[in-house]
């Protein structure tokens, strides 16, 4: 498996994302928007430590790419993809977005390749979720893809 994405690397290239996310968490005028911040502000030392100590729940998905496709309404070239269907071991399928830190790694997202995605499940301010449970943001932490 080749690591193709880490949130830490993506944030190093876009520090404004951290500032905006943290500002929304701290904005009491928007009580239903943003992260709750219960495990530390997004991407802060406390937040990363909460993930490492398993206080902030994570989810790992592993499966085989069934198909790749373009999702969205933006203009694009005919060969461009940004999403894929991941077939899980239990037979279920989930649609996911492609996350990469380096453009050349998009070539690894092909039908038949295995993908592992790790998410942080960070609680949102807006509660509860539609099903009555805890409403969380699924934040992609890492992505790895098999190579042939």
Describe the structure.
The protein has one domain. It has helices at about 5-15, 15-25, 45-50; strands spanning about 1-5, 60-70, 85-90, 95, 115-125, 135-145. β3 and β4 (about 95) form a beta hairpin. About 20% of the residues lie in helices and about 30% in strands. With about 150 residues, the chain is an alpha+beta fold. The protein has a six-stranded antiparallel β-sheet with strand order 1-6-5-2-3-4.
What is the number of E strands? 6
- What is the radius of gyration? 17 Å
Percent helix:
10-25%
Q: What value does the average pLDDT take? A: 94
Order of the strands making up the biggest sheet: 1-6-5-2-3-4
Number of domains: 1
Helix and strand composition category: alpha+beta
Keyword list:
single chain, 148 residues, alpha+beta, 6-stranded antiparallel beta sheet, 3 helices, 6 strands, 18% helix
């Amino acid at each position: 498996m080749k690591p193709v994405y880490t949130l830490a690397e993506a944030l190093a290239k876009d520090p404004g994302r951290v500032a905006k996310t943290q500002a929304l968490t701290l904005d009491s005028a928007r009580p239903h928007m943003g992260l709750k911040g219960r495990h530390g502000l997004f991407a802060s030392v406390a937040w990363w430590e909460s993930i490492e100590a398993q206080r902030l729940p994570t989810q790992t998905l592993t499966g085989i790419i069934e198909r790749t496709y373009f999702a969205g309404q933006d203009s694009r070239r005919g060969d461009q993809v940004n999403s894929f269907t991941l077939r899980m071991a239990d037979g279920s399928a989930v649609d996911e977005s492609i996350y990469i830190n380096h453009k050349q790694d998009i070539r690894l997202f092909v039908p038949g390749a295995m993908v592992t995605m790790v998410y942080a499940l960070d609680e949102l301010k807006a509660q509860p979720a539609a099903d009555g449970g805890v409403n969380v943001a699924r934040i992609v932490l890492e992505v790895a893809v098999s190579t042939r």
